[in-house]
Amino acid sequence: MSEQVELVLRWEGTAARWWTAGTLLFAVVAGCAAGWGVEPVLDWAVLAVLAGGAALGCAAGLLRRRLEAGPDGLRFRMVVRWRRLGWGEIVRFEDLRVSSAHARVRTPAMRVAALLRDGSLVMLPVPLTGAADAHVFEKQLSRLRALHARHRSGALGA
User: Fold this and answer.
1) Are 31 and 94 in contact (CB under 8 A)?
2) How many helices (H) and strands (E) does the chain have?
3) CA–centroid distance for 46 within its chain
4) Could you report the per-residue pLDDT of 63-97, keeping only the tens digit for each?
5) Is the dihedral of CA 120, 125, 126, 129 positive or negative?
6) Helix runs in the chain, H state only
7) 80 with 129: CB under 8 angstroms?
8) Under a CB-based contact definition with an 8 Å cutoff, are residues 16 and 90 in contact?
């Protein structure tokens, strides 16, 4: 992909930020409790380490979900690696409603998948949102579809 990036999308979910902040706060409280000698000290220290690791994992997951779109196609990062899709490979973008595996969560999450020419679906890391942020999701998806429509004709002619 060329250096010219026309659209950058990052995960902007507020629920994940609250979970990360809450986990980090719990790690700090547990660490303080262990430092002050609250019994049992070892249990508080283990809880602080586990909660701190969970907070770091949540933060890393939030920071790493990213999608860039330019004249050559999409470039997106899930957790560990980048992946590229040219505009000519993508037939269309489909918006999906994904239900949670947990019985407590009743509202579906909204995700985007790219349908490729070979018939396979590639789940994109963003846009990804809950039902409360549907307007943000629709805005990001429409921007992505507009870029696809503009660049697809040039990619198919090449």
Assistant:
1) no
2) 3, 7
3) 29
4) 667 889 999 999 998 667 788 999 999 999 998 87
5) positive
6) 14-35, 41-64, 134-157
7) no
8) no
Q: Return the closest-CA partner of residue 69 out of 92, 82, 81, 85.
A: 85
Give the structural domain span for 20.
1-158
The first and second tokens of residue 140, run together, are: 């990001």
CA distances from 158 to 13, 44, 155 (A): 38, 62, 5
Q: Are 69 and 23 in contact (CB under 8 A)?
A: no
User: What are the residues facing 70 on neighbouring strands?
Assistant: 73
The pLDDT tens digits of the residues spanning 137-151 come to: 888 899 999 999 998
Q: Please state, in angstroms and rounded to a whole number, the distance separating the CA atoms of residues 146 and 134.
A: 18
Tokens of 14: 């507020």
pLDDT reported for residue 116:
95
Task: Please tell me the distance from the alpha carbon of residue 16 to that of residue 100, in angstroms, as a whole number.
Answer: 15
Looking at the structure of the chain, the number of domains it has is: 1
Q: Cβ–Cβ contacts within 10 Å for residue 55, how many?
A: 20
CA-based torsion, 47, 48, 49, 52: positive or negative:
positive
Paired tokens of 108:
């579906």
Closest to 53 (Cα-Cα) out of 33, 94, 23: 23
